[in-house]
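Quiz preparation item.
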């Protein structure tokens, strides 16, 4: 089945008076910018967004080795491009999808997923968990200070809901503080898309970066990922004399395009199969409507399995992950032991909210290079 434009009532509205355009601090409407366009600008101009440039996507300390490896910022821009394309083609709210993509990784700590795991492990000892979606919500509602009248970015309800619900569901019993975000209902399709746009972006990009870094070998990837092998063969038939690297790039583009088109077709199919014509019906649906078809799910699974085994959990990256974990857990313990070692504003927050929470927020906001500097100072202090 091909993809089709969805009924306009399925999309989130761009109207200023839409309930999802509501902000905690009332603001006058803008003469020529829709609510989610304004939120997009606020995120692009946020300090936490700029820090994504200094945060690991997959390769910790890779900057020294290659200028072409993705950072969390360039990954984010790739997700935004994919999400905007899909939303526009389906007749959904492309402004909202783009905004949610731009903000989707803003809550990530330094050192990629190794950093996230270490921070979570440290917090568990204090009876809490680290969750990058909830951290992102704290950033946009509290930590960003850009306005004289209030803390945070005063984003619309639609964007805040999408920040927490784009990748997982939260139960109202466990998270009473999130009651305003319709926890018993699914998010709009614009938010549901983000997790899959994220996957499409990172699965193809990490494969490219892994091959460029020579951690992955093309022969092995082709042997274990059938969709890559088929796409490479097609590219090679079209351009029999082209260099392997260029054929590989063509193959990766084909995979990316197929996953995007498949996602669009599957959303169309599910919307139709469930007789959905309004946003309210999207929210009440039995299952998420954004998904890959079963056939492409197989491709996605094999690609994912290959990357986990040979890249994310590879021996080559393991030493970096261990070091990242050691830095985060050591600094965490050092600051929690005596929060007066923190900068004054974070030390003050430790008094109000507890040391573990304040230290987590401090660490989670750091770029890779910032925590490296903190680590050097710590080692220096220990030596004396
Ligand atoms: Mg991401």
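Solution:
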């Amino acid at each position: 089945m091909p993809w089709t434009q969805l009924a306009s009532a399925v999309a989130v509205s761009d109207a200023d008076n839409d309930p999802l355009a509501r902000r905690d601090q009332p603001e006058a409407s803008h003469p020529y910018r829709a609510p989610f366009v304004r939120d997009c600008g606020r995120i692009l101009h946020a300090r936490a967004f700029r820090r994504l440039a200094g945060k690991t996507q997959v390769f910790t300390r890779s900057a020294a080795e290659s200028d072409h490896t993705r950072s969390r910022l360039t990954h984010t821009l790739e997700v935004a491009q994919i999400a905007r394309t899909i939303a526009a083609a389906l007749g959904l709210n492309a402004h909202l999808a783009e905004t949610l993509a731009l903000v989707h990784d803003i809550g990530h700590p330094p050192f990629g997923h190794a950093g996230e795991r270490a921070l979570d492990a440290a917090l568990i000892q204090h009876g809490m968990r680290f969750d990058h979606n909830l951290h992102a919500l704290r950033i946009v509602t509290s930590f960003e200070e850009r306005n004289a009248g209030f803390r945070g970015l005063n984003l619309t309800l639609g964007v805040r809901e999408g920040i927490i619900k784009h990748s997982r569901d939260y139960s109202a019993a466990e998270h009473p503080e999130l009651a305003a975000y319709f926890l018993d209902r699914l998010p709009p399709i614009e938010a549901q898309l983000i997790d899959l746009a994220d996957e499409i972006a990172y699965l193809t990009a990490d494969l490219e970066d892994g091959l460029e870094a020579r951690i992955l070998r093309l022969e092995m990837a082709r042997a274990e990922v059938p969709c890559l092998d088929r796409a490479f063969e097609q590219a090679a038939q079209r351009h029999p004399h082209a260099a392997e690297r260029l054929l590989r790039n063509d193959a990766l583009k084909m995979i990316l395009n197929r996953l995007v088109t498949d996602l669009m077709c599957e959303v169309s199919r599910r919307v139709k199969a469930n007789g959905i014509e309004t946003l309210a019906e999207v929210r009440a649906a039995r299952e998420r409507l954004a998904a890959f078809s079963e056939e492409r799910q197989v491709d996605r699974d094999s690609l994912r399995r290959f990357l986990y085994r040979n890249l994310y959990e590879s021996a080559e990256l393991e030493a970096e992950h261990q070091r990242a974990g050691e830095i985060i857990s050591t600094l965490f313990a050092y600051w929690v032991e005596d929060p007066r070692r923190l900068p004054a504003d974070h030390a003050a927050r430790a008094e109000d909210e507890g040391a573990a929470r304040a230290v987590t927020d401090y660490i989670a906001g750091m770029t890779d290079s910032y925590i490296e500097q903190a680590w050097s100072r710590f080692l220096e202090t220990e030596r004396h």
